[in-house]
Amino acid sequence: MRPLLTACSVEVYKLRRSFVLWGTLLFILFVITLFLGQPNWPSFFERTAFLYASVFGLLGFGLVTSWTFGREYSDRTLKDLLVLPVSRGKIAIAKYVAIIFWCFVMMLISFAYALILGFSIGLPGFSFAIVQHYLFLILIIGALHLLLSAPLALLACISRGYLVPIGFAFTTLMLALVFGPTAIGAYLPWSVPALHLQESGVSLFPLLGTSYLLVFLIGLLGLIGTVKWLQNREQ
């Protein structure tokens, strides 16, 4: 257990020093600022949640995941990493833990930033119930996207870099935007976060238990595949 905890702390520290992490956070804060001109708090939070259900989740979290795994190849540090007295499976898990930790930190920071912006211009319709509802909603959407980001780590290992997984993340965003509003969306894992956001009202094609199961399977296969790839292919 101690080697895993050590590996996790190292990966958390490495990602904290990454320009990709903070650049992604600055991009998120900038886009939230652009959508400040909403009539009330519910509309503002709804727009913020939608951004997390689409661009912030698929591209933002996807970029962080792709870079975390792909940089070891582009910086030629993977060989040094694999000779450490820590199993390759634990290294992969530690990277996932670091990604999950910092992505949730980004969500909390951006939500607090949205609150500060809303209060600064005096948006009407504030209530603690609304804040609680949308905070939990954004965290759930973020968790779904973190599961969907797992295959990007495997793609980064297979392609030995981060360009292919980033391209895949962009492709899934386009697929989600095109097929999400159709009946296919409920069976397209990358559409599930946005459809989950719409479950409270206007979703024409409500989600099924199968929809969430597909997201979970995508995440599980991505994690297992990455661990197995590092264990069996990298010598």
TrEMBL record:
Membrane-spanning residues: 19-37, 49-69, 96-121, 133-155, 162-190, 210-230
Asked whether the keyword Membrane is assigned, the reply is: yes
Look up keyword Membrane and say if it applies: yes
Q: Which UniProt keywords apply?
A: Membrane, Transmembrane, Transmembrane helix
Q: Specify the protein name.
A: ABC transporter permease
